[in-house]
Amino acid sequence: MRLVGSIVGICDALRLCTIQKGNNMATLNFNEKQILEKYLEMKDGFVLDFYNSSFHDFFQSTFNINIYLDKYNESGDSKAKRMRTFWKKESNNLVAEVLHELYKYKNEENVQVEEIIYKLKNIKEKINLNILDELIDDSDFNKIVHLIENEFNSNGEYSSILDRLHTLIVKFIRHLCKKHNLTFKDGQSLDSLYGHYKNHLVNNKLIQSDNSLLILKSSVKMIESLNNTRNSESLAHDNKLLNENESKFIVNSVVNVITFISEIEKEFDDLNKENDDDIPF
User: Fold this and answer.
1) For the CA atoms of 239, 245, 249, 252, what is the dihedral angle to 10 degrees?
2) What pTM did the predictor assign?
């Protein structure tokens, strides 16, 4: 049986459950885009007075971004079209920084543009684990999900949820082991449980892509080290908290694993439901 076909499947899954700023793209409405396009003189495919080379140099030298990568060529090759795609694909904070530099470059005061930049810079990151509510109907588990969401969404600190994230993934993997009748002991470690479940996915051929499987296997070590992070660098004990950059990296990595597995389980449940509906009575 095949449920997830390739790395594309992983990418689609990650859009549903992640720590995000405006769903991983700049949160610009239609009117705000019109204001920016007018200010940046984008009507005829240009951006201010930039040539192709100077447009490239602006992004490369200021932000270490190659604006002429294929990812920014989604709607066309003009500077204006690449800028629109950049707004679509990048985060609020990054788009705000680019707009701020362009605003300084043009050196022409515009209150509306300033308000847009300010708004983008002040949109808080949020964590959304709704897919887990849909997947697991358990009050204790859902309570932990909501505690993580509420804690992070109120203070925006990744380090503050490391301990509960560990609790969440332990309960999550145990639930899946029970669901698929995989035997385990009460005191079995998280990495052992996760390895057990990963073997279930491999043995039942629920992963098609070798690359997907490689990523999943490599995440076993990450899951194993999460226990040490919880015990030594989180609020679980009287610890010095891990810095925010590394906390963010760990949280995002764990959430990505949870999301991918959740998508596999959701497709598994949907497939079983379809098969049950086909049984004649």
Assistant:
1) 90
2) 0.58
